[in-house]
Structures are given as C-alpha cells and as structure tokens.
Amino acid sequence: MNISTRFAVAIHILALIDTNREGRNTSDWIAGSVGTNPVVIRRISSMLGKAGLIEVKPGIAGAKLARPAEQITLLEIYQAVDAVGEGSLFAVHEHPSPECPVGQNIAGAIIPVFLMAQQAMEDVLQQVTLAQISSQLPV
Q1: Is residue 1 part of a domain?
Q2: Which of 7, 18, 48, 61 could share a disulfide with 134, CB 3.0–4.6 Å?
Q3: Cα distance between residue 66 and residue 78, in whole Å
Q4: If you write DSSP's letter for every residue of the chain in order, what string do you get?
Q5: Which domain of life is it from (predicted)?
Q6: CATH value at residue 110
Q7: Which residue, among 12, 19, 2, 10, has the nearest Cα to 50 in the 3D structure?
C-alpha cells in the first residue's frame, strides 16, 4: 500500500503558493497545475489550514503560507494531510495461520522493524523544508 497521494499533492500546493507569493493562489489555478479537481485542492487546503500551514480568508480568493517556507518541514505536511496513521506505514497481513509457528509469530518479529523504518523516514522528512523543495523548482 502506498502513502496517500495527499502528501505529494499537499507539497505541490504549498510549493505553488511559495513560488507564487504575489499571485492569486486559487483552488482552480492550483488544480490546473496539480492536474486534479478544485474540490480535491480545497479539501487538502483545508487540512493544511487546520494544521496552521496556510491561511485562506473568506471572501478573498487565494491562499498564502502561514509562515515562511523555511519553517515548514515535510514532516509537518505529511502529518497535516494524514498520509498514514502513526505507526501504520506498513501493514501486517491480518489472518496468518495460528497453526503455523511462523504464522503465530511473524507480526511480533516484523512490527518492530516496520516501526523503526517509519521513524527513520519521518526523521528524514523532519530535516527537509518546503523552502528546500521550492528552491529546486524553476520559477
């Protein structure tokens, strides 16, 4: 199972807003860049707003970053859009055979490794900022 595409779309939204600071960042305009429906953009933007990453004012078209891109990490974005639940990046199959010694014990053997792998990924995301991503985009 993949991490939800909401994560990549959220980074795309925020990078657009960051690189278009003087423009109007409407859901229609953003949707055109992302290649999706404006409703999807509004839903993800709502999540980003609740997490304090963007500001959208009623009656005023467009969104802006709530704080500088240098202060927004990919981990914050990942958590804002609920890309995966805590400790659930990797899933263990649900019905191994209780008759089999491997089936009885496989979850206990691999879950700690899965948790360490998810933590390692989240540690990397914590070290990368939106500004670093935006700086790699031609504007």
Answers
A1: no
A2: 18
A3: 16
A4: -PPPTHHHHHHHHHHHHHHTTTS---HHHHHHHHTS-HHHHHHHHHHHHHTTSEEE-TTS--EEESS-GGG-BHHHHHHHTTSS-TT-SS---S---TTSHHHHHHHHHHHHHHHHHHHHHHHHHHH-BHHHHHTTS--
A5: Bacteria
A6: 1.10.10.10
A7: 10
| Paired tokens of 73 | 């990490």
Q: For the chain, what is the domain count? A: 1
Identify the CA nearest to 105 among candidates 118, 96, 114: 96
| Backbone phi, psi, residue 10, to 5° | -65, -40
The total of other beta-carbon atoms located within 10 Å of residue 37's CB is 12
| pLDDT for the residue 65 | 96
Two tokens, residue 39: 């409703």
60 lies in a domain? yes
pLDDT digits (tens, 9 = 90+) for 96-127: 898 999 999 999 999 999 999 999 999 999 99
